[in-house]
Design brief:
The protein has 312 residues and is an alpha/beta fold. It contains 16 helices and six strands. It has a domain of 197 residues: P-loop containing nucleotide triphosphate hydrolases (Rossmann fold), CATH 3.40.50.300. Helices cover 41% and strands 9% of the residues. It binds adenosine-3'-5'-diphosphate (A3P).
Length: 312
C-alpha cells in the first residue's frame, strides 16, 4: 500500500517535485452563495460530478463538529472493533475528504476516492445543497454530526490558527463576526445544521450530536452500528468506546493528524486534538459576545425543532 504520509512527514519529502516551504493561506470564494475554500471552487466541475457508489457511506459535518471522532468510530464499527485494522493509515487516507484540493503534487480528495475500492467511507463538510447529486441518486447512507455553535466557533478559530492552509484568521472577535455572518468556509452554521436536519426526513441520514457522543458514547456508537446494519457483543462495544475516547485518539498517530507535515499544521500554535470537551466556549466568549450570539441564535433557530446543548 502506498504510504505518502510517511514522506510528507520527512522534511526532505520524497514526493517528487515537492519543495518543503510554508504553504500560503488561502481565501474563500462562493458556490451558490456558500463560501468554500478557493481550491474547492476552482475544481468545482469534477467535485459536483463526483460519482458516488450505492455502498458508499458519507460522513458529513460543519467543520470542527467531531468529524475525526465519528470517522474513527465508524471505522471501528465497520471493522468489528479491530483497532489494528483501523491503524492501517491515517484518517485522511482511510476516508478521503472529497472536496479537499491540496497543492500539487498531493492528490485531490475526489481523485483519492475515485481510486479507492468499494466499500468506501468518504468525508465532506458540504451543506446539504452542495452534496454531489450522485450521492442522492445512489441513495447512499450518510452520517451527519452537529456540534453546538459556541464550541464549534472556538474550535474552528484554533483550527484556522494552526492550519497554515486556511484563510487569514484575524482576532477572535472578527472571527466570531465572520462565523455568525456566514463568511467562513462552508458558510452559515445555521443553514448547515438546519439544512441537514430537514434532509434527514427524506434520505437515509443518521443525525448525531457531538454533545450526545460526549454524554454517552456507547449509546451513540450503538446507533451508528444499527444504522449500518451491524451488531456486536458488549465487549466489542466497550473496545470501540475505549479506542475512541479523546485521550486514546490524541495518542493515536493514525487518528490525531500528527502525520500532517508542520508546513501545513503548525503544532507550535496548538494541536488538532485540542480539548475535546463541551463548554470550552466559556473560556473564550466575553459576556457581550455571548449575548450577541444568543440574540442571533434565537432569531435564526427560534422556529426550528433542533436543539443543542452548550454544556453537559
Ligand atoms: P476542540 O478543538 O474543541 O478540542 P473535526 O474532526 O470535525 O475537525 O473536529 C475537531 C474537534 O473534535 C476538536 O475539538 C477535537 O479535539 C475534537 N475531537 C476529536 N476527537 C475527539 C474525541 N475522541 N472525543 C471528543 N472530541 C474529539
Amino acid at each position: 500500500m502506498p504510504e505518502p504520509w510517511k514522506s510528507m512527514m520527512n522534511p526532505k519529502s520524497e514526493v517528487q517535485g515537492f519543495e518543503p516551504k510554508f504553504i500560503q493561506r488561502t481565501t474563500v470564494e462562493e458556490v451558490e452563495g456558500v463560501p468554500l475554500l478557493k481550491e474547492t471552487v476552482e475544481n468545482w466541475g469534477p467535485i459536483w460530478d463526483f460519482q458516488a457508489r450505492p455502498d458508499d457511506l458519507l460522513i458529513c459535518t460543519y467543520p470542527k463538529a467531531g468529524t475525526t471522532w465519528i470517522q474513527e468510530i465508524v471505522d471501528m464499527v465497520l471493522h468489528g472493533g479491530d483497532a489494528q485494522k483501523c491503524a492501517r493509515a491515517p484518517t485522511y487516507e482511510r476516508m478521503p475528504f472529497i472536496e479537499l484540493c491540496p497543492p500539487k503534487p498531493f492528490t485531490f480528495g475526489f481523485e483519492e476516492a475515485e481510486a479507492m475500492p468499494s466499500p468506501r467511507t468518504l468525508k465532506s463538510h458540504f451543506p446539504v445543497q452542495l452534496v454531489p447529486p450522485s450521492f442522492w441518486k445512489q441513495n447512499c447512507k450518510i452520517i451527519y454530526v452537529a456540534r453546538n455553535i459556541k464550541d464549534s466557533a472556538v474550535s474552528y478559530f484554533y483550527f484556522h490558527l494552526m492550519n497554515r492552509g486556511m484563510p487569514e484568521v484575524g482576532t477572535w472577535d472578527q472571527f466570531l463576526k465572520n462565523l455568525l455572518s456566514g463568511k467562513l468556509a462552508y458558510g452559515s452554521w445555521f443553514d448547515h445544521v438546519r439544512g441537514w436536519w430537514e434532509a434527514k426526513d427524506r434520505h437515509p441520514i443518521l443525525y448525531l450530536f457531538y454533545e450526545d457522543m460526549k454524554e454517552n458514547p456507547a449509546r451513540e456508537i450503538r446507533k451508528v452500528a444499527e444504522f449500518l446494519g451491524l451488531e456486536f457483543p458488549e465487549p466489542v462495544l466497550n473496545q470501540i468506546v475505549q479506542h475512541t475516547t479523546f485521550e486514546s485518539m490524541k495518542a493515536n498517530p493514525m487518528a490525531n493528524y500528527s502525520t500532517v507535515p508542520s508546513i501545513v499544521f503548525d503544532n507550535t500554535v496548538g494541536s488538532f486534538m485540542r480539548k475535546g470537551i463541551v463548554g470550552d466556549w466559556k473560556e473564550h466568549f466575553t459576556v457581550a459576545q455571548n449575548e450577541w450570539l444568543d440574540d442571533i441564535y434565537a432569531r435564526e433557530m427560534g422556529d426550528s425543532s433542533l436543539t443543542f446543548h452548550t454544556q453537559l
